[in-house]
Amino acid sequence: MPDLRLTHTIDLIADDGSRTIQRLGEVASYASAELVFKQAAIEWPRGRILWRHGARILCDSGSGRRDAP
To answer: What is the reported pTM?
Structure first.
């Protein structure tokens, strides 16, 4: 079970992962974060989108990594 005290952040990042280009969302719930991530993937199909919960990476569209429950 994720720690609900931490914030979910969704960022558009540089292709090499070196920096955040734009913060797309910062939400408290998993469900809201999932919606923001899916919408971002539609709006930026070629962009690299990173979804974090605290320091843990839940999903990275650039690498195909998905650790979200």
So the answer is: 0.79
